[in-house]
Batch of 2 targets.
Target 1
Amino acid sequence: MSKDVYTLTSPEGKTTELPVRNGTMGPRVVDIGKLYREQGVFTYDPGFVSTGSCESEITFIDGDKGLLMYRGYPVEQLAAHSSFIEVAYLLLYSELPSADQLAEFEESIRRHTMLNEGMLRFFNGFRYDAHPMAVLSAVVGSMSAYYHDTMDVNDQRAREVFTHRILAKLPTIAAAAHKLTAGQPYVYPRNDLSYSENLLHMLFAVPAETYEINEVAAQALDLLFILHADHEQNCSTSTVRMAGSSGANPYSAIAAGIAALWGPAHGGANEAVLRMLKEIGTARNIPKYVAKAKDKDDPFRLMGFGHRVYKNFDPRATIIRDMCHKVLAQNGQQDAPLFELALRLEEMALKDEYFIEKNLYPNVDFYSGIIYRALGIPTSMFTVMFAIGRTVGWVAHWREMIRDPNGRISRPRQLYTGSQQRDYMAIEKRG
Ligand code: SDX
């Protein structure tokens, strides 16, 4: 019996040999491409728990070991030694850059941070209290109405221009969305600042006074962007791949990813964690909320806990939790009680049989909001911050998908459970 095939036998005894494919690391896959043609059946896997959607060289996660690697480099090493711009280069171009390559890449990003002035008028069309994720997805989608010259997905030069433009302008759009809801004037980017320094400047500078960049805050943001940069075929990245597979322009594909990220089960969880911690209020209320999370009849879940892939600690959560101590020591003592509450909640949940049996650990969203809040970033902007980090991962996957010579439009099938065929009935004959 060959070890490189799975033999599937139908109830009627018809067999199909399904080839096995080996990756560099992680589980092998069974290629079921010919299943429907030979057996007349579809596989069925809502939520894609056991389904690989593509081949990718970008990121690898081992959920049992709590391992996350970008292009083979463990995220802990990149967090300790790299910068977000360097990690962005790595994700996009597969290798760590030379000093000259990094300088050229960073300079290109710095010089594309301004928005077309016409796009700024867009912001005036939103209600003053619009959620910044709604603004972000709308304005990024509108980029396809401004940058016609980078819409040919088959043109390598156009793909490069798009890549640099979207990375450079995302923070500018994000900051403008914040200024809209803060009722403050939009702040133009500065080419003399680093990626994270520029974002802080655009978020918090006001015309009435000079703004001093807080270097601890800039370093914390840079680290958070590294940790959020990519994560295999998560919901929003799969959405970008799906949208891009039809040949849609890349700005629209990224806007689709932003929309998917907004959900509380995904990137919206960091905002939901802060709301949950405020609702819990004090440590003596923790048992009540842990009980609610365990109650099948209660829709409440401990936000920031659990993960489809990690059945061990999310390595990003561990790094962010350690960073909380540093940021709060310098920036946000007033948020120390919130952090203490989060630590107590983690401690009590991880001792609870339910969480142990279901392998529910804190994920990337559990502690990140505490840092954002300590930096003065409003809760409604937390998922926007996630999107700023994740955009480079979405772009890297979009580029990989577009360049795949075997690429096809993504079009899943279904199990139909609706009505049998029936004839139209005139309204006067209906019951
Ligand atoms: C992100 O995919 C990625 O990589 C995402 C991400 C990325 O970088 O892109 O890592 C970012 O989205 C992190 C996840 C943020 N979301 C949350 O923190 C929301 C709270 N967590 C969940 O709702 C849930 O854990 C998910 C959505 C993260 C995972 O859902 P799954 O894999 O579909 O797991 P499940 O819902 O089937 O849960 C398995 C069991 C269930 O119990 P049973 O039906 O088996 O009895 O665990 C329970 C769930 O009820 N469970 C929880 C829980 N999470 C799962 N119970 C209480 N609290 C929770 N948080």
Target 2
Amino acid sequence: MLDVCNPQVMRSLLAEFGFHFSKSKGQNFLTQRWVPERIVRESGIDEACGALEIGPGFGPLTQELCLRASKVVALEVDTTLRPVLKKTVGEFDNLEILFTDALKTDLPKLVAEKFGDLTPTACANLPYYITSPVLTKLLESRCFASVTVMVQKEVAQRICAKAGSADYSAFTVLCNYYAEPKLLFDVPPSCFMPQPKVTSAVVCLKTRTQPPAEIKDEALFFRTVRAAFAMRRKTLLNCLSAGFPQKTKAELTEIMQSVGISPTARGETLDLPTFAALSNALQ
Ligand code: SAH
């Protein structure tokens, strides 16, 4: 197996294939073998699993996934990587690479076609310019048992934030609605070529089989969460009033009080079960 995390090997691949890193495609490739090794080890992915990778690059994470999972499907948008990947991961017969945009891929269809009876999982060093949309798409598809991703540390902290903390956001609630996120470990800029400006972190999101609270109307739940976080320095009452203009402030105050929320509360202090109760009462 070619050590595609070795900077010397990487430089010779760059020269051999005339490859140039694309900033607009979010290309920061791993240069330390321990990183993809540890990502896959801590992801819990094993031979019972099918693994979907997004953005294989030169293939370091792909290699580790192929060694552990029964089947790996990798989606790569950059077709200039085709000949490179042929050389770096061509030896794996449990791997299929599709040169396509992950954001435009029908994931449930792909999982059904490619993974059969295997437990579907996702694992990626995500291109940072599309972290939130890709992660949202992976979770909303509801077809992965777990999603393990490397993201900017700041995003990882947002995903794992507790209610009331500065990092708590609508994205936190979305991630926790679909999954139980766990912060695994940090990865410094020195582990990449080219080096990003910020520290990265790996998060494992175990998909929930049961929703974390009783929610009568999912769309209304997310609408409530978005309204609550839309204006950070405003009270929840003012945020709800802006998001639900058909209701008077008196009606909204009564609804809030009926589920035990103070009229002066701020949206960012509500935990997920309280958002659930609030959206059920708004129905
Ligand atoms: N996994 C490799 C590369 C990470 S860089 C490593 O860890 O070294 C991010 C990768 O995602 C790049 O290969 C980039 O071309 C790819 N990528 C960017 N946008 C994408 C998209 N929309 N769909 C699929 N792959 C994408």
